[in-house]
């Protein structure tokens, strides 16, 4: 996909953060936009910022498989095709394995993994039919390394990575006209930490404050990096210097990165 003009781009989680910034950046490049979010108010704010662009909004809970498939059919009815799906919607959970409730574990997996998997599968036939498609799935740097108290988030984001990398190989081997990219953002200045669920023993305010200190990249900058990666058909798109650093540590040390994370966590999470 060398040119985005008049391409139909579908973005989940478009009501704030990276999703909103992607919508604005793609609109500038001439994309037609199908934007969804569970937050109707935030979605309306995104649409209001895109006056003059070809935009339709859809209230969508990506944890609902049937709703995602219905959404794909509706988008194609409204726009005639779909070229680019960016499965961006996501949530966060901070809890140890022993304290995490089954309900919270299922909540994050339903959104962060199954929302991505069902979004990909629902739109894939339409991307193939378009003759020029691209799947972009948002993982995380926590899809590269494991971190204490992030086991559920790690599980979802590692799963997104494996699912997406496998799909990319399948599309190439099957000679399908669909590119596939997996995105690994580092700390991005969004509201995800503010809406994160925590276990009873976690200090939510401290968690959010700590995240804010580590958030190095603005959503607008993240969107530009992602779009550049799409146009270059990158298999792995790293967002932020922290993401590049973590990726390098993972490549150089393999599983030996874990003592480094343990030392950091002992000081910052278990002190």
UniProtKB/TrEMBL annotation:
Entry-linked SMART domains: PKS_KR (SM00822)
Keywords attached to this entry: Oxidoreductase
Keyword Nucleotide-binding set for record: no
Any one GO molecular-function label of the UniProt entry: oxidoreductase activity, acting on the CH-OH group of donors, NAD or NADP as acceptor
SUPFAM superfamilies: NAD(P)-binding Rossmann-fold domains
Ketoreductase domain sequence ranges: 7-191
Family membership noted in the UniProt record: Belongs to the short-chain dehydrogenases/reductases (SDR) family.
The name this protein goes by in its record: Short-chain dehydrogenase
Species of the source: Marinobacter antarcticus
């Amino acid at each position: 996909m060398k040119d985005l003009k008049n391409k139909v781009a579908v973005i989940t989680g478009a009501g704030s953060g990276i999703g909103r910034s992607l919508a604005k950046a793609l609109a500038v490049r001439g994309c037609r936009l199908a934007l969804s979010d569970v937050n109707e108010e935030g979605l309306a704010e995104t649409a209001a910022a895109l006056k003059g662009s070809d935009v339709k909004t859809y209230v969508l809970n990506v944890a609902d498989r049937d709703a995602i498939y219905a959404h794909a059919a509706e988008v194609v009815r409204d726009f005639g095709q779909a070229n680019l799906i960016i499965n961006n919607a996501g949530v966060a959970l901070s809890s140890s394995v022993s304290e995490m409730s089954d309900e919270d574990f299922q909540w994050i997996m339903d959104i962060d993994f199954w929302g991505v998997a069902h979004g990909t599968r629902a739109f894939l036939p339409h991307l193939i039919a378009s003759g020029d498609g691209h799947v972009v799935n948002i993982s995380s740097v926590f899809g590269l390394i494991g971190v204490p108290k992030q086991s559920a988030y790690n599980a979802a984001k590692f799963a997104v990575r494996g699912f997406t990398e496998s799909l990319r190989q399948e599309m190439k081997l099957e000679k399908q006209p669909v590119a596939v990219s997996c995105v690994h953002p580092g700390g991005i200045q969004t509201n995800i930490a503010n809406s994160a669920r925590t276990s009873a023993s976690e200090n939510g305010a401290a968690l959010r404050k700590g995240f804010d200190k580590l958030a190095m990249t603005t959503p607008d900058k993240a969107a530009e990096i992602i779009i550049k990666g799409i146009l270059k058909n990158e298999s792995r798109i790293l967002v932020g210097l922290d993401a590049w650093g973590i990726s390098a540590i993972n490549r150089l040390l393999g599983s030996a990165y874990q003592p480094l994370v343990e030392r950091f966590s002992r000081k910052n999470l278990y002190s």
